[in-house]
Design brief:
Blueprint (H helix, E strand, L loop, with lengths): L1 H38 L6 E10 L3 E17 L3 E18 L3 E9 L5 E10 L2 E10 L2 E11 L4 E6 L4 H28 L3
Antiparallel strand pairs: 1-2, 2-3, 3-4, 4-5, 5-6, 6-7, 7-8
Length: 193
């Protein structure tokens, strides 16, 4: 009886700690996002890559990829010119013809791991925005906002993702890793001068 009571008490405490843990994580992610927003205002804290591609059945697709980062001296006592870079955010904007605009954001923590994914689509039919929050490489919250063409808004907040939502979160995680690797390649390209 005592063991059963102890197990139930521990499970109850863990269950009550989860919302507080999520709230703290969400606040940390918001602070990191605010930091990225401030860095975007600094001209030396970003690399911008633009593509202008003519696609069949689409026309001109314009894509911009913005890498936002922190740059500081790696070893000021040894080499004041050697820098280390910390990727904070990647923002992607592109169009599909004139009918739809897309905006995607990947937010990284100080270890370079994805903590937040944002995707927005705007068209004449309305808009849709999805936010996925990550903890240790796993999604723990998803928010879906949409607005129909007549302006009617809706919101869905989910702590338990469906299999399709988990697949989408996993795909975003894989793309975030690819963008992180592209950032490293951009830094190497910059050194080729």
């Amino acid at each position: 009886m005592h063991i059963r009571y102890t197990i139930c008490s521990v499970l109850l405490l863990l269950g009550h700690g989860a919302p507080a843990r999520s709230a703290g994580e969400l606040e940390t992610i918001k602070q990191r996002y605010d930091q990225a927003s401030q860095l975007e205002k600094e001209p030396g804290a970003q690399h911008l890559v633009s593509f202008h591609t003519m696609l069949p059945a689409v026309g001109l697709q314009e894509t911009q990829v913005r890498f936002v980062f922190i740059s500081e001296q790696a070893h000021p006592e040894r080499d004041p010119y050697e820098l280390k870079h910390e990727l904070v955010k990647v923002g992607v904007q592109y169009n599909v013809a004139a009918s739809a605009q897309f905006r995607i954001e990947y937010l990284y923590d100080s270890r370079g791991e994805l903590v937040f994914f944002f995707e927005e689509e705007e068209s004449a039919e309305g808009s849709r925005a999805s936010r996925i929050y990550y903890r240790a490489g796993k999604p723990f919250r998803r928010i879906q906002d949409s607005r129909s063409g007549d302006g009617k808004p809706s919101r869905e907040v989910t702590e338990k993702l469906t299999p399709g939502q988990r697949r989408k979160a996993k795909e975003a995680l894989a793309r975030a890793r690819q963008y992180r690797e592209h950032f490293r390649q951009l830094l190497a390209l910059e050194q080729l001068k």
